[in-house]
């Protein structure tokens, strides 16, 4: 069974640009969540999608958005990039909810210069 | 709001010895799950162990076990017979039941296993 796949693995962008990250969950999983990981703030929840609907959202500015497609693949978009957006972005998928095991991808390392 | 606290930023243990990683949490919920995740240098977060709050019995997975003290809101991880491959960051995490719940992580602890 293939794991959670995140693309790209590494990304370098310039301030002011926008970026789209992709996450393909484990086959059959309907829940996809996104996290931002930085040394200073640790792991912070961005949002969760379940069956194409955003089910929960963290405390991030509107520059951070996401969506989920009918095949459960999810994309996260960050517009007008800032230096502080440099982080490891992790995606996790689970079958129904968090009581079941959540599987993480290897993340996308975004560097904003 | 739920919070998860891991007060030890770093720990070191000799190979084959036992180490305990501490975690406390704060919540007003009665139904929830607690997790320990491992993040090695490869960055892949791996679930180590899970505990349902309604279960009094402490969860065990091979060399990993937890000491779950619900009243004290404490959830520590014990690693027995430490191996070099256990070197990683370990995160304690909490999630309440319910449709709008979200996984809340502690800051993590860096564990180094010395040969």
How do you describe this structure in short?
The complex is a heterodimer of chains A (113) and B (115). Chain A is built from no helices and 11 strands. With 113 residues, chain A is mainly beta.
Structural notes for this entry:
The complex is a heterodimer of chains A (113) and B (115). Chain A is mainly beta and 113 residues long. In chain A, 0% of the residues lie in helices and 53% in strands. Chain A has no helices and eleven strands. Chain A has strands spanning 5-7, 10-13, 19-24, 31-38, 42-50, 53-57, 64-68, 74-78, 87-94, 103-104, 108-112. In chain A, strands 2, 4, 5, 6, 9, 10 and 11 form a seven-stranded mixed sheet that branches. Chain A is globular and about 35 Å long. Chain B is mainly beta and 115 residues long. In chain B, strands 2, 5, 6, 10, 11 and 12 form a six-stranded mixed sheet that branches. In chain B, strands 3-9-8-7 form a four-stranded antiparallel sheet, with no helix packed on it. In chain B, strand 8 and strand 9 (74-79) form a beta hairpin. Chain B is globular and about 45 Å long. The termini of chain B are far apart. Chains A and B meet through strand 5, strand 9 and strand 10 of A and strand 6 and strand 11 of B.
Topology:
The complex is a heterodimer of chains A (113) and B (115).
Chain A: E1 5-7, E2 10-13, E3 19-24, E4 31-38, E5 42-50, E6 53-57, E7 64-68, E8 74-78, E9 87-94, E10 103-104, E11 108-112
Parallel strand pairs in A: 2-11
Antiparallel strand pairs in A: 1-3, 3-8, 4-5, 4-9, 5-6, 7-8, 9-10, 9-11
Chain B: E1 3-5, E2 10-14, E3 19-21, E4 24-26, E5 32-39, E6 46-52, E7 60-61, E8 64-69, E9 74-79, E10 88-96, E11 104-105, E12 109-114
Parallel strand pairs in B: 2-12
Antiparallel strand pairs in B: 1-4, 3-9, 5-6, 5-10, 7-8, 8-9, 10-11, 10-12
């Amino acid at each position: 069974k293939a794991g959670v796949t995140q693309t790209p693995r590494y990304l370098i962008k310039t301030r002011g640009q926008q970026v789209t990250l992709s996450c393909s969950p484990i086959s059959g999983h309907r829940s996809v969540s996104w996290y931002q990981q930085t040394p200073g703030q640790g792991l912070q929840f961005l949002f969760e999608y379940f069956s194409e609907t955003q089910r929960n959202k963290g405390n991030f500015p509107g520059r951070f958005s996401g969506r989920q497609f009918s095949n459960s693949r999810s994309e996260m978009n960050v517009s007008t990039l800032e230096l502080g957006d440099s982080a490891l972005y992790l995606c996790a998928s689970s079958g129904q909810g968090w009581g079941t095991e959540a599987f993480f991808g290897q993340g996308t390392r975004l560097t904003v210069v | 709001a739920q919070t998860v606290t891991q007060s030890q930023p770093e720990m070191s243990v000799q190979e084959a010895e036992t180490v305990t990683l501490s975690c406390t949490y704060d919540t007003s919920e009665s139904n929830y799950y607690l997790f320990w995740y491992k993040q090695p240098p490869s960055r892949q977060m791996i679930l180590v162990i899970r505990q349902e709050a309604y279960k009094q019995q402490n969860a065990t997975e091979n060399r990993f076990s937890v000491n779950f003290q619900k009243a004290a809101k404490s959830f520590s991880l014990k690693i027995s017979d430490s191996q070099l491959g256990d070197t990683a960051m370990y995160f304690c995490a909490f999630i309440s039941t319910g449709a709008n719940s979200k996984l809340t992580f502690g800051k993590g602890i860096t564990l180094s296993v010395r040969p």
